Amino acid sequence: MASIIGSGLPPFAQQDVLDNAGRLIDKHIQEDQSYVDLSELIRVQTHNQPTVSGLHDYDYPSLLEVGMGIDSLREVSSAKRVPLPPELVEQFGRMQCSSMMGLFPEIERAWLAIDSDIFVWRYEDGTDLAYFDGLNENILSVALVKPKKDIFQPHIRYLLCIATPVDFVLLGVSFAKTYDGVGSESGMGEMHLLPDPLFSIPTDNTYITSITGTDNGRIFMAGKDGCLYELVYQAQDGWFSRKCRKINHSTSNLSFLVPSFLNFSFSEDDPLVQISIDNSRNTLFARTEKGNIQVFDLGEDGKGMGRVASLSHQNITQSAYLIARTIDRSNYKTLVSISALTKAESSNIHLVAVTHSGVRLYFTTNPFGGSKSRPTMLTLVHVRLPPGFTANAVTQCPSKVNKCCYSKGVLMMVSSQNELNDLLWCVSNDSFPIQTQLMEAHTTLNIDGPTWAMAEVPWSSIINNDSGRTGRIEKADPPIVVQQHIEPCRRFIILSSQGSHIFQKLRPVEQLQQLLIDSQGPDSEEVKGFFRLHRVEQACATCLILACSSRRSAADPKVSDWARMAFFTYGGEPQYHYSASMATHGMQPSNIGAVYSSVPATPSTTVVYSPSSPYNTSMSQNLQTPHPGMQPAHMSTPAPGAYNQSYYQPSMMQPMGGPMQDVMFSGKHNGICIYLGRILRPFWDRPATTEFPCQTDQGLLYYFSSSFTSEEIIITLELVRDLSDFVDFNAQVDFGGSGESVASGFSSRMMGGRYSDAMMDDQTRKKLANEALKLEKISLQHVRELIHQVEEVLGLWKVLVDHQFHVLAACLTKDQQNQLRSMTFKSLVINGRELCGSLITCLISRYLDDNATIDAISSRLRDVCPNLYSTDDATCSKANELLQATKTNQNQLEKRRQLQEALRLFKDVNQPLQLPAVCNQLASVNFYEGIVDLCLTESNKLDPQNLALHFYRCCEPPEDQQGMQAFINRMECYKCITDTLGYLWSASTSHPQAPSIPKSPGPPQAPDPTRISSVQAEHFRNEVFQLSLKSDDELFHVALYDWLFLDNHLDKLLEIQTPFMEPYLKRKSGTHGDNVAALDMLWKYYEKIHNFPAAARILSRLADRPGGDVSLQQRIEYLSRAIMCAKSATSRISSAAEGEFLHELEEKMEVARLQLQVHRALCKIPHRSPMMKEALNRLDSCLIDITKLYEEFADRFDLSECKLAIVHCAGLYDAALIENLWQNIIDKEFDACSSADSQSRVTNISNRLVAIAQLYSDTERYFPLAFILKYLEQKSCELNFDPHWVYRAMLQIHVSPEKLLELYDRMFKSKDPYWQTIHRPLHLLIVLHGFMTHFSNNPTSLPTMERRRFSTSCLDCVSSYLVELQAISSTNSNVRNLVQQFKALQAKLERLQY
């Protein structure tokens, strides 16, 4: 069907297609829900405003207006006549007192009571005759009722209730096979009456006229005394007791809850003759022989009892006369029957009574609009006259009605004609569904013999139709036209002395079938009239029921072909229609046929819904005008526009500058949508699952169960498949062909006056027709796709239900379960593809977990849902099965073959795999090499043109979206390999488990058998790693190296020797050296391959690289390694360039060390200003040249020691500057320890100065010893320090004793007035004495050759010092002591000469 989509329209995504079709189905389901309640059909607005109908032609419209006679559409037909069994005929000859007959339609049986014997047989064929002759009295009344639960044994399915003048007997009824319900062929077993009564109680001289049972097993009896009785029985000791009693609800003490004025019974002269029970509301209605009606409330739960109201026949007659004054009172003289209406029939009307003349009286037991909880009254609200009361009626009115049956809008009446014949009347509104007023058709049939009994055969739908009701508001069941495709034809049984006569109530589908058979094809006025009556799209939907039913039923193939021909012949074609002119010149609706409520137009991608009618007929014109004198309350007044059709509004077409146009789809298109919507209606908005609680060892758990039973799915799936086959088979048929359209006569009127068809030229008309046809074909294609999707989802759901759905749903993730919990069938079809896939995965996994082969289930899934479970899915499932088999296979060769075969199957899958899940499965069987192979193969499948590599080599331009997507796809494939490597790497590292407290007492738990050992993990890791390195996929190597890099496996990365390694690291590091870690790896890689020049340059670049991510210490280390590499390079390759580069590196190294010194000096400053912090950041973020280092850092922050180092490194000599720097250094050291005691200060200062001086002691220019010595002695003298610490510190610096003696001697002889100023003129002599004494005490501190020379110098100095001292006043004791000390020293030095 793809070819039918016009090239001028954009293609639709699958999701858009399903959304568009889903909106169509929503719209038609909503239209089917637009029917009104019975009270609205009979125009009763409130309970105190009664109405009348049946007086006008439109109440019983003539079908002559649509081209068919009154007999063309029969409402009922005779299906079968079965005579009485011959055995029963013989029994009539033995009758002595009385005989009576009746029906048990619940079990498809009829019964005959002759005197005290009762006979039961199957009325369908006269077989299975059963009898009971255990009574001694004549039988007065018989009924078949349901037993109460848990009272009798399970094989007792029903109770046969027999009343005689003396006692009341309950007999058990069982069947040879379990009885499943009417219509179930497997359940129609042989009937058995238990020979012994279950209960038998006396009647107390009460004549029982009628017996009726409720659904919950209660038994009510109508007494000739006018009282309502109940037979109450109960179980005893877990079985049943003999306690069985009869309660009189009309006069017993149980009626004390009822108001006193209601606590009465009718007299003996007015016996109760009929009981009708509404089991949906638990309400009981009783009719007396004279026509009085009583209402009893059975309670909300159906277990109570209370009389609510009653109406005498006189009151009923008077009320009916006041409502329909023109009707003779005699028509209400006798009530023949009452029928309780259930909630499924009406929410406001609760009872229908029929008189002997066929007049229907409608009653309610609650005020309209109330809560309608329990009945409170009985009020007549409507009188419906039978056919024949209209002015132009050609039909005689019913008379002498003696049997009646009313249910779900169908009235069956039997009127007496003579002693040998009766007349059967059937009145129904099935031919006029979804109307705004009650319109009915009728049929009469002559039947033989007087009628003894009449009943409808009950049936129960396999599909739950309650789901079609929206919201919490109770709503009656939809018209039969909505459900006729799934529900069986209604059947009625009439029993007479001649036998049983079975009738079928004909629905529109049977009526159409009969018309086609009678006409021997669709080409007849009657078939055309059917399309006019039911509207084109509704008739097309009915045609589809016949056209699609030949395969699944015994339907005549000819009828199916004729229905298909009628579908295409009268289905019409799409048209353009002008919305502006429609309001003025649009068609008025017919009062015959379906009239749907207006649905607001809602634009969508495909269809705009705008209510309208596709045709107009002369019949509608004739019926538009009400009959003269008709009251407004009785009128049928559909609102303008209260008719519907589907539209498409194309914005690109607006010829002639007229108003916007709509495409009105054909009846064929809408018929398909309507039929599909009706098939899916019970499912569409229904939750897909329900939850049920289950008590387990883990507590109360909730499991998911399917909301749809297997039987519901089978039936619905069959209907959908039939429709799918029809649409597929006729896909090439021109749905918009030139077949005859019932509505063709109205196309010009659709255009409206000014924009009429006559004003268009042929080219414009043809263009519009082609455009409309194209748009309809697109919409049909969308619907076709939805049908296929529904077919697959239903097929899958059936498979899931057959495989314990609650177990499969429990395997879903929490998110998926939450999604499933809130998902309706509609959302499952339209948006649930992913969830369906997850459920399929759970199903396949369940098979694999059970070690079962999946071939059968895989084949079944491929058959029922080939799109949800494709060939690739089946291939994957087979591969999973092979992997599962390897877990138990002990044959290593066979296991290897299975692994390779599974890998081959995975590689053969065309669609993209869920690689993480597949890789986990391969890893579970330790097939790690398969993971590498599969992932690399899958990456090539996803990118066969290698767009990702081009994208990568072009530096990943963002505008290349295609290349970017290919790159992402490949990386996702490679990630599975790296994730596997990561797992194996972790598992290969042995970690002793930490001790833990066991969860329960007993032996230690066994180790996990699925966990591989560290030795195995290391083996598999190396295997995967080696296989990975053998790949020639450059991008995979990039992904692998990235993973190693990010996972900090740098040593492993450096071991790799592939042609992709160097380009990767170069790209990783960037042309500007932005990636420090990558540059760090790159120089190590170069060093490893002995490319020392390249390594040295990378290291130099790292050291020079600005930024705070590399510390100053790290930069120095880089420079150090760079120097080593450069030296290695010069040793291998001798070149001037390399030598120059080495020299440059060494100079950088010296400056970097100075920078580090400055940095450390600044860090030692306790209080840092913002300026200082900024300086530290600068020092740590880049290498600074020596000039800036001095000016902007050392000098700026007065770092004298650093300035001295910088000056020294730069080779700059300025004696004054250097002396000033040393002075500042000494002053700072003295200030730094000013708070300590003298000895500690001396020690600290000495140690610090020694450390500094040792750096410069070899270069006299930067170590002014004379200045330093003098300054230190002055500071020491000022602070009164130990006079010996200075020369001792100098000796630690390795200053030679001769040099020290020379400097001290020169300092003394210079006669500096400073010493006199501070009053320490002898300080230097004391120091000199101590220095020389130190030598004399430690003569071995000097070599032998220098010792004599130095001792001689010392003697010379001592002599001169003694002369100086002797010249000073001898009265000073310090001088005398010092002289004595020098003399003693002189003697000691002289001894050293020898």
Automatic annotation (TrEMBL):
<dbReference type="GO" id="GO:0006606">
    <property type="term" value="P:protein import into nucleus"/>
</dbReference>
<dbReference type="Pfam" id="PF08801">
    <property type="entry name" value="Nucleoporin_N"/>
</dbReference>
<keyword id="KW-0509">mRNA transport</keyword>
<dbReference type="GO" id="GO:0031965">
    <property type="term" value="C:nuclear membrane"/>
</dbReference>
<comment type="similarity">
    <text>Belongs to the non-repetitive/WGA-negative nucleoporin family.</text>
</comment>
<dbReference type="GO" id="GO:0036228">
    <property type="term" value="P:protein localization to nuclear inner membrane"/>
</dbReference>
<dbReference type="GO" id="GO:0051028">
    <property type="term" value="P:mRNA transport"/>
</dbReference>
<keyword id="KW-0539">Nucleus</keyword>
<feature type="domain" description="Nucleoporin Nup133/Nup155-like N-terminal">
    <location>
        <begin position="79"/>
        <end position="501"/>
    </location>
</feature>
<dbReference type="GO" id="GO:0017056">
    <property type="term" value="F:structural constituent of nuclear pore"/>
</dbReference>
<dbReference type="InterPro" id="IPR042538">
    <property type="entry name" value="Nucleoporin_Nup155_C_3"/>
</dbReference>
<dbReference type="InterPro" id="IPR004870">
    <property type="entry name" value="Nucleoporin_Nup155"/>
</dbReference>
<dbReference type="InterPro" id="IPR042537">
    <property type="entry name" value="Nucleoporin_Nup155_C_2"/>
</dbReference>
<keyword id="KW-0811">Translocation</keyword>
<dbReference type="Pfam" id="PF03177">
    <property type="entry name" value="Nucleoporin_C"/>
</dbReference>
<dbReference type="InterPro" id="IPR014908">
    <property type="entry name" value="Nucleoporin_Nup133/Nup155_N"/>
</dbReference>
<keyword id="KW-0472">Membrane</keyword>
<keyword id="KW-0325">Glycoprotein</keyword>
<keyword id="KW-0597">Phosphoprotein</keyword>
<keyword id="KW-1015">Disulfide bond</keyword>
<dbReference type="GO" id="GO:0044611">
    <property type="term" value="C:nuclear pore inner ring"/>
</dbReference>
<dbReference type="InterPro" id="IPR042533">
    <property type="entry name" value="Nucleoporin_Nup155_C_1"/>
</dbReference>
<keyword id="KW-0813">Transport</keyword>
<protein>
    <recommendedName>
        <fullName>Nuclear pore complex protein Nup155</fullName>
    </recommendedName>
</protein>
<feature type="domain" description="Nucleoporin Nup133/Nup155-like C-terminal">
    <location>
        <begin position="666"/>
        <end position="1368"/>
    </location>
</feature>
<keyword id="KW-0653">Protein transport</keyword>
<dbReference type="GO" id="GO:0000972">
    <property type="term" value="P:transcription-dependent tethering of RNA polymerase II gene DNA at nuclear periphery"/>
</dbReference>
<comment type="function">
    <text>Essential component of nuclear pore complex. Could be essessential for embryogenesis. Nucleoporins may be involved both in binding and translocating proteins during nucleocytoplasmic transport.</text>
</comment>
<dbReference type="InterPro" id="IPR007187">
    <property type="entry name" value="Nucleoporin_Nup133/Nup155_C"/>
</dbReference>
<keyword id="KW-0906">Nuclear pore complex</keyword>
<dbReference type="GO" id="GO:0006405">
    <property type="term" value="P:RNA export from nucleus"/>
</dbReference>
